[in-house]
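User: For a reading group we're discussing how well predicted structures match intuition. Take Enoyl-CoA hydratase/carnithine racemase. Before you show the prediction, I'll give you the sequence so everyone sees exactly what went in.
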Amino acid sequence: MVERARHEGVLLLTLNRPEKLNALTGALLDELYAALEEAREDGAVRALLLTGAGRAFSAGQDLGEFGEEKPDYEGHLRRYNRVVLALATLEKPVVVAVNGAAAGAGMSLALWGDLRLAAAGATFSTAFVRIGLVPDSGLSFLLPRLVGLSKAQELLYLSPRLSAEEALALGLVHRVVPAERLLEEALRMARELAEGPTRALGLTKKLLLESFRLSLEEALGLEAVLQGEAGRTLDHEEGVRAFREKRPPRFQGR
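Assistant: Thanks. Here is the predicted 3D structure of Enoyl-CoA hydratase/carnithine racemase, as structure tokens, for the group to look at:
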């Protein structure tokens, strides 16, 4: 259900239930979490790329998984929440390539990418209100920070279907590319990130996430601490050496 492939320093993860529009199940979420932990522990992985197989990124939760029973959503969301936390706290850059529909929790997962590309025909919908539910998988936290409170209210209350171009205008994605070039462009971006100073990128990601809760004074203090950590990396030494020698740096991710 989650395919893994290596492309130099990039781990490509593909949600692979195309016949179900990559609808999310407990088993799929468990596989995705395991793959994210693999990426966290593997020093050879310096960037992550997440996409979907077929004509959708993910249609969200597979409601058929629950059968006729009333779902224990609070318990089930523990699986989603650990995936979201793994994406948010992975100190390596995450690229998401949205190849088709991203709805409900599928949209939530897509937005947790650090850099997000969409195919020209992709669509986005919060979808939760359509089945009488509240946003989950971190969407209530992230969406207003991406688009502002007023627009988040519109997207969550009315649940319009956004085109890729509308998502780009709102800042939900960074680039829209032709569908036939999506994976190529996403891999190119992920490889570029994988060739960067992995530790500095990871610490920058941490700073940005922490900035949501810190005062200015606290943020300045954390910057100083993490700058000290970045300054002790071999990549920093290489970056300074390359600057002095007027050549491109050759970062090793250490």
